[in-house]
Structure formats: structure tokens, C-alpha cells
Amino acid sequence: MLKFAYNDTIKRMLRVDDFSTLGVSTQTLAEEAIWGERIEEAIALVDYFHQEMRIMHGILTTWLKDIMRFIVQHGGPSENGAAIAQALIGTWETYPFGEALRERCKETIRASAHDALLADEAIDMLDRMRLEFKVPHDVLVAWVQNLLTEIAGRWGEDKVLESILETHQSIWGDRYENWLKMTPHERMALTVEGMRGGHFSGERRRGDMTLRDDGDRLVMVMELCGSGGVLRRGDPETGRAPHPVGEHGVNQTPHDWTWQKTGVHWYCSHCAIAMEWLPGRQKGRLLRPLDHVMDPKAPCTWYVYKDEDKTRAYHYPRTGVPTLPGAPGTGEDWRQEYPGGS
Fold first, then answer.
1. What is the rounded CA–CA span in Å between residue 247 and residue 167?
2. For a tag site, which of 107, 125, 208, 225 has the least CB within 10 Å?
3. Residue 222 and residue 211: Cα distance in Å, rounded?
4. Residue 342's pLDDT is what?
5. Is the pTM here over 0.90, yes or no?
6. Whole-angstrom distance, CA of residue 316 vs CA of residue 335
């Protein structure tokens, strides 16, 4: 059931539905509200959907600006690295993606009571708003991949880690700063939000995913991940092929920060770094482990543990983090390609 609530921890509205709807695209719920003539609910969902997309757009543009600054500063002496990076990415940050369509959609919704044609028009505007974000989203994700590839090719694979660590706080550190102050359900809601309207996950690229409760942990399964998954598999909505990686687009040497695997796209390596490798070294605990699978056709599965002290033991060795004393050993083998998912 849909539930909006102001979250005191992150200081904004957050969808905290139960699992029957939390993994359903906000776009889909907005469509249902429009058809059902629930005007205020529909308008609130349109605003929230735009917010979901805008937040992730801001994360990606921040990341790109930081990578560009890293490249400029490491390419030779320069006091203008930050200014150059801002000049290169500034338009992407400020361009009003979806704003005009959002307002027109809301106006049409208000006028659509008992008018099926206007309802259909509002729904069409809603989808065009999604596409106005989705197209640059996929370009920005590919751009991150290409720039990290440039770093690996010019200065070696360890420089990719260095670059991601330099941008960590402004992207993931701030977003998850108050993680432990949130309930497990709120943590899952924040997690789902990023991959739902933020990254357009799912075969329809609308943000659909499957959620389940395993007792000790909450589980999010994306079929497919809308960022790294689309890079690796291609876009099922348009038929676009996988993004070409080139000679240096995946790692050739296994690292703890690539789950001790080779062939990991540089874009995907940030999940190992930000969710497992770095928090494990800073705090001795993993933030939000996931099952990365080399087969691009496989789902991507993430875990939010209800008690982080009870994170299952198999998550730790793959990023070289010492296993927390008392971590349950439940039979999964971390060396298997897909140890925890089902």
C-alpha cells in the first residue's frame, strides 16, 4: 500500500510503502491515481517521481564533475581543475529536465476529472517526463564508464579506486550518513528509491523490482539494474546494444574492491567500493552488500540487514573485510558466482 511520509532523518518526503507496492514504479502508481481520479494523490506522485529522477541526475553530474577534475589535476599542473570540470558539466546540472512536463502534467491532471482523453494526455506527459530524464541518464552512466576507463588506461587500475574515493563523500557518504538512524524498512525504502525512479531499473525501465523479507534481511532484486546492468546488457526498452567497453573498460587484475574478480565494468566497481570495501575498512561493517554476477543476463540482488552485526559471513571475504565475530555462517560460499540470491 502506498505510503508517503516525511522522514526526519533525511529531511524530505520518502515513499515507505509496504512490500506490496514499494517495488512498483512511482510512474505506475501515478497512472493508477490519474485513472482513478484521485487528483491530489496523482499530483503528489508526479512531484515525487520528478524528485526521484532529479536526485539521481544530480548524483551523476556531481560524480562526472569530480572525475573530470581528477583527470585534469592528474594530467599535469593545473590550478583550474575545478573550474574546467564545472564548465564541462554545468549545463547538465542546471538544465530543467522534466520541469515543464511536470507542471503541464499536473495541470492536465487537475482538469482531467471525468475526462478520459485528458487523463490519457496526462499519462502521456508523465511518460515523456520519464524519457526526458532516462535518455540523459543513460548517457551520463556511459560517460562515467568511459571516463573511468580513461583513468585506468592512462594511470593504471588503482587510480580508478583513487578517483572513486575522492568523490565518495559528496555522493554516497552524504546520502548514507544517517543510515544507522533509520529503521531497516526506511533503509530499504531509500535504497529502492535510488534504483526505482533514479536509475530506471527493470525490463520496462520504469523502476520496477522485486522485494522480499528473508527474516534476517530485506532483499531487493533488480531484473535488470538500470545503470550498470543496462551498460552490460543493453536497453530492453529501445533495443540498444550493450555499451562497448574497449581495452581498458573492465579490470584485468583482481582487487578486493572488485569482489576479487576480473572483467568488472568500472562503473559497477563503485558498488563494491561504496557498499562493502570502504565501510568495511572504516567501521568493520558492510553498509549494504550485494551479489554482483558476471553474467549480464542475471539479476542484481542487494541486501539490507535488519541487524548489521548479523550480516551473513559469506559477504565479508570477497572484499577482503575481516568477518565480524558472530556473523552467521549460513552455508553460502562467497566464491560462488551467485552465492546469496535465489
1. 25
2. 107
3. 9
4. 43
5. no
6. 11
